[in-house]
Amino acid sequence: MKTANIVIATSMALAMSGIASAVMAEPVKIGMITTLSTGAGYLGEDVRDGFLLAVAEEGGKLGGAEVEVLVEDDGRKPGNGKQIADKFLKRDKVEIMTGVIFSNITPVVVPLTMKAGVFYVSPNSAPSIFAGKGCNQDYFVASWQNDSLHESAGVYANELGYKNAYILAPNYQAGKDSLAGFKRYFKGKIAGETYTKLGQTDYAAEIAKIRDAKPDMVFHFLPGGMGINFLKQYSQAGLKDTYPLVVSTASMDEKIMGAVKDAAIGVRSTAHWNLAQDNAANKTFVEGFKKTYGRTPTVYASQGYDTAKLIASALKATGGKVLEAKDDFRAALKKADFASVRGEFKLANNNHPINNWLGQVVEKDANGNIVNKIVKVVSPNHKDAYADACPLK
Amino acid sequence: MYLFLEQLLNGIQFGVFLFLIAAGLTLIFGIMGVINLAHGSLFMIGAYAAAVATEWTGSFALGIVIALVVSGIVGMAIEFVIIRRLYDRDHLDQVLATFGLILFANELMTILFGRTPLFLNVPDALNGSVEIFPGVQYPLYRLAIIAMGVLVALILFLIITRTRAGMLIRAGSTNRDMVAVLGVDIALMFTLLFGLGAVFAGFAGAMAGPLISVEVGMGEQQLILAFVVVVIGGIGSVRGALVGALLVGVVDTLGRAFLPDLLKLFMDPASADGIGAGLSSMSIYIVMAAVLIVKPNGLFPVSVARH
C-alpha cells in the first residue's frame, strides 16, 4: 500500500515537472486551419506564406517568443475543419488558432475554439454571426467583417455616380451576404439580381441578361477562379466598358489580374490594402514576400502577415504567455499595437478592424504591368454594421 | 424575343463545349468499358499545355497543336502504365485507380505551376464579336467553339463509320477476344483509342482556356456534367453524346436565364431568385432522371456484349 502510494506520488511529481518544463521550453503553438487545395488554394497558400514570413523575419519568433505554427488544409470542407480543430485543440494543445478562409468553415471552427478557451485570430473570413450579438472576447479579426468588403463597394459606386446596378453572386451564404452588404450602402436602383452556381464556369446566360437589363454598372462577388471565368467572358462579350464593374477586393486580386491581364483594365474595386501602399511596414512586407517566395503578394498574404503581427504584438506585451495570462493577452490583442501593412490598424468594440476602404482602378503602368491603382479613400473608418449589437466594450 | 434566341444560342454553344469533353469520355467509357475519372485531368493538362505553349510561341494555333500532342502522349502513357491493368477488373477498381490519378495530376500541376491560375487569352483573330441579331453582339470565339464542335463530331463520325480503324474499334468493343484471334493487336489499338480520347479532352481544355480559369482542378468541374451527357446520350454513342450535350447545354442555360423570372410571376422576387437559382442547378439532373425513366440505356443505346 505504502509503496504504491510512493510510486504514484513520484510518478505524479515526475509528470508535473514534465509539464512544467514543457511549458517553459516549448514554443507557443499556433494552429492554422486553412484552404490549400481546390481552386481557391491560392487564398490559403498566401495567408500561410504571409503569416510564416512574419515568423521568419524574427527567426522563428513572434514578438520575441518562440512559436510553432501547425498548418493543415481543410479542402474548403467544414467536416475537415472540425476534425483538424479537434486535433489541434485536444492533442496538440495549441494556444492560438487562426487561418480559416471560407465562411462555411468559420462557424464550425470558432465555437470549438471558444469552448476550449483558446484564442482565435482570423486572417480572412469574418461572418456576421460572430460580429454582432454572437461576438466573443477571445475571437479577433485581422482582416475585415465580411459585409464591409461589399458595403465599401456600394459606397464607391455611389461616389462614381452610378444609379442603376446589376448585381450577381454565387448562391450560398457569403454570396447572399455580399449582395445584402452592397445594397445596404448603394443608393441607386437595382436593375437585376442574379444568383449563380458556386464554382460556375460558363456565364453566357448571365451576361446576356446583363446586356438586356442595360444597367449603369455591374457589381459581383465572384472570388478566385469564378471571377476569372466571368471577367474573361464579360470582356469578350464587349460589355466591360459599356457596363463597368465595381467590385470588392475579393473579386479583383493580383491573381485574377495576372490571369486575365488586359481584360481587367478599368475594373474598379475597394480594398483595405494595396500593393503600392506607401508605408514602411508594407515596403518590408512586399519586398520580403517577393524575395522569399518569388511572387507578388495578394491581399490574402497581407492579411496573413497582419494576423501574425497582431499576435506578435500581444506576445510581446505578455512576454510570450498566452493561456497563463489570458486577460493580459486579450487586452494586448485589443490594443493592436503594431505597424500594419495597411497603415493604421484599430479594432472596434467587437474585435473587428475599423478599416479605411480604398477605391482602386486597374490600370497599365509605365512598365506595361497591370496594377491596381489607388484612386482615393472612399470609406474612412468604416465600422461594420453589427458592432453596435455586440455587448463587448 | 432576341434575348430568347441569344440565350438559346448560348445554350447550344455550352452544349457543343460539353460535347467536346464528352466525346472522348464516351469513347473510353463506352467502347473500352473503362470509367475514366481522370478524363478531367486530361482536360486540365490540355489547357495548361495550351497556355504554356501559347506563352512561349506567341501563337494560339501552335498552342492548340502542342496541347493535342501533349495530351495524346500523356493519355497513352496513362493507358500503358495504369489503365491496361484495369480492363478485366470491375468498375470500382477503375474508379479508385482513376480517382487516384486525379489527385496525382492535381498535385503534380501544383508542384510544376503553383496555385496561381495561368494566363490564356483569346487569339487576336478571334477576339471581338459579330452582330447576330439587331443590337446583340455575340463573341466570335464562342462561334468558333460551335464550329470546332461540329468539326469534331464530323471527324469522329467518319472515323467510326467509314474507316477500317473505326470498324476494328467497333468490333473490338463487341468482342475483344475474337478480334484478337483474327490477328489484330488489340492492346495497341486500345492504347491508341485511349490516346484519341485524351486528345479530345486536351482539345476541349485548350479551347476552354480562353473562356475559363486555367487552374488546378478545372477539369473536375466539367467532369460531372460530361458524365451526365454521356449517360443521357447512351454510353458509348458519339451521336448520343452530341444530342445529350446539346440537351444539357440548352436546359442548363435556359434554366439559369429564365427560371427566376418565370417564378417571379407568382412569387416575391427575393425568394424567386433563390429558388430559381436552386432549381436551375437541378434542372439537368431532372432531365437526366426523366430520360432514364423512359429510356434506361440513354437516348441512343449502343448494344455491347460484354462478359
Keywords:
heterodimer, A: 393 residues, alpha/beta, Rossmann fold, 2 domains, six-stranded mixed β-sheet, B: 11 helices, 3% strand
Describe the fold and architecture.
The complex is a heterodimer of chains A (393) and B (307). Chain A folds into two domains: 23-144 and 277-353, Response regulator (Rossmann fold); 147-271 and 356-387, Response regulator (Rossmann fold). Chain A has a six-stranded mixed beta sheet with strand order 2-3-1-4-5-6, sandwiched between helices. In chain A, strands 10-11-12-13 form a four-stranded mixed beta sheet. Chain A is built from twelve helices and 13 strands. The relative contact order of chain A is 0.14. Chain A is an alpha/beta fold and 393 residues long. In chain A, helix 9 (254-260) links the parallel strand 10 (246-248) and strand 11. Helix content of chain A is 42%, strand content 20%. In chain A, helix 8 (224-236) packs parallel to helix 9. Chain B has 307 residues and is mainly α. Chain B has one domain (18-294). Chain B contains eleven helices and two strands, in the order ααααββααααααα. Chain B has helices at 2-31, 39-57, 60-81, 91-113, 140-162, 164-174, 176-181, 186-208, 218-233, 238-263, 269-294, and strands at residues 129-133, 136-139. In chain B, strands 1-2 form a two-stranded antiparallel sheet. In chain B, a hairpin with a 2-residue loop joins strand 1 and strand 2. The model of chain B has no long low-confidence stretch (mean pLDDT 89). Classes of the chains: A alpha/beta (393), B mainly alpha (307). Chains A and B meet through helix 2, strand 8, helix 7, helix 8 and helix 9 of A and helix 1, strand 2, helix 9, helix 10 and helix 11 of B.
Number of DSSP helical runs of chain B: 11
Judged by helices, strands and strand pairing, the structural class of chain A is alpha/beta
Report the span from N to C terminus of chain B: 52 Å
List how many beta strands of chain A DSSP finds: 13
Helix content of chain A: 40-55%
Gross morphology of chain B is: globular
If you compute it from the alpha carbons, what radius of gyration of chain A comes out, rounded to the nearest whole angstrom? Answer: 22 Å
User: How many distinct folded domains of chain A?
Assistant: 2
Helix-strand pattern of chain B: HHHHEEHHHHHHH
CATH uppermost class of the largest domain in chain A: Alpha Beta
Q: Considering DSSP H and I runs of 4 or more, what fraction of the residues of chain B is helical?
A: over 70%
